[in-house]
Amino acid sequence: MNASFRPDIEGLRAIAVLLVIAAHFDLPGFSGGFIGVDIFFVISGFLITSILLREQSTTGTIALGRFYARRLRRLLPALATMLVVTSLLTSYLLHESQYQEQGIATAMAVVWLSNIYFTFSDVDYFGDENTSNAMLHTWSLGVEEQFYLMWPLAILLVAGYCKGRNPHIAAVRFFTVITVISFCACMLFSVSNPQFSFYMMPTRAWQFSAGALVWLLSRDRRASSSIALALASSGLLLLLSALVIIEPDSVYPGALALLPTLATCLLLWAGSSGKQTIIGSFLALQPMQRLGRLSYGWYLWHWPVLIIGEQLAPIKGHLGHTFLALAVSLLAAILTYVLIENPIRYGSAARIKTKWQIVLAVFTMLLLNSQFLKWQTDTQRQLATANQAFVRALSDVPILYKQGCDSWYQNADLKPCIYGREDAQKTAVLLGDSIGAQWFPALERALDPAQWRLIVLTKSSCPMVDEPYFYARIGREYTECAEWREKAVTWLQQQSIDRLFIGSTASNAFSDEQWQEGTRRILEEFAHSAKAIYLLEANPTLKVSGPQCLMRHGADHEAACQNPAGPAQYTHVAELLKAVAETQPNTYWLPTSKLVCPDGQCQAMRDGTVVYRDAQHLTASFVANTAPYFLEQIQRYEKATQ
């Protein structure tokens, strides 16, 4: 065995992969298990820095070609195998509508860029998107490989800077600077751009450099047995604390990411002492060693097995299916390790000249990248040909989105969009989030543009409830929503409004009191500026994406693509808000549930029209056809008050 081999590190890898898998499979008590990725990052920083600095101090340089070839030989074969097999299984087992989004993600993963793809495609690791993309877990591999690409160059930069200086002190200073700058960037972006903070290598570099600092500091500071035990115990305590404190809706990675990062640093430092602790003994147990060796392969396979498996049968929450999925993914990891990883890593491929190893690896990456992109393009073409109406429904949104009226969470800018004649005698306003905005085509058609001008003020995911709102997608309080809402109210109070339509989703986790009081405060703001206020009910939802369900089931959609009106929270919130509306002057409750889901049954398609563009938003085409209903409701209320 290699004299520098650290069984405790192999055991830490086992802990890391077990935590990640437990979190992804929704095992009770492990919702924060995604911190296992942080453990992997710190370990990589520790090991790679030790390898590179030892080589640099011994030979005076770093053989970059040899280093990159080793990394590619270690990581690419297993990754490529998983990507190819998963793509084949997806194409054979699932409908085209379920794997069309996989093509680009797979193509990016094979060239180690999927983290960048997920960053700028606004995919949320903790959101609903992650239940369908079998490649989401590859983001961390992209971060790792980008680290491997840049770190040797950083080491050489340190070496050049160290000439004539104490190399140890210079290296500590250098990696400390990287740690501080990267951590500050991580904290900054965790608030302003959570996707960037979570997925990108520069905002994760501090975790790698923390591992580097541990190796540098522990190399000349060997801890005694008692100190090693204290370090290991503190590391374990921090790790357990992180598991308890950190949740999917936590701001992450931010200050909370310090917990698993420091925990791993302490455990690595304790193991560097050479003194065996009870914690180190546990990590060195043979089962932990075996799992540690399989950790890369198991990480690769567990996610696609879960995602594809859940399309065929429920896994999360089902003990038998969970055990089967875990067993299948572990078996795939074992086979990959025995048949792919080890033979290529240590076999004849390792004896090929370094430059040809790199050429072969790059050629493989580019070839697979092109094929995965072709697969995605062909899938889109097939879907567009066979399911034109359903494909169009996916993007059947109100025109206001194309005109830039909605800025989502990026800022709190107020962007009123005005339709109809500017000198029209009457003014109507549509105010709300995306659920409110979806009714624009109905109002536009119901209101005579010669007599009415229609002002639209919408901000996606921003409820019209005057209460603080924690938005899980961005991992923090949605302060832009509160700021935008205040601006919108102030601006509208300066307008003369004949009809004000207010609508937003009913899915937010407000208490009953917050729903009622927060809505009441909004309505009271317009008591003197709006002649009539219509509070729109949030329509019931589907349990699946309407267009995708229609693609999968075709002629059988009537049975498969419908469900009873709900969920129950929507009905409950509707009762709360209706009660509020009835207490406010000139305010009327405008129901939509029976309109969207007649006879208490929600359908993806009705009378030849696709009703839903996803699971909750309605298509603009369907909404436009509801204009007579809106006009009837408005006229009924206004006649009753004359």
Automatic annotation (TrEMBL):
It holds the Pfam family SGNH. Residues 411-630 form the SGNH domain. Residues 8-337 form the Acyltransferase domain. One of its GO terms (molecular function) is acyltransferase activity. InterPro entries: Acyl_transf_3_dom, Acyltransferase_3, SGNH. PANTHER family: ACETYLTRANSFERASE (PTHR23028), ACYL_TRANSF_3 DOMAIN-CONTAINING PROTEIN (PTHR23028:SF53). This is Acyltransferase. It comes from Bowmanella yangjiangensis.
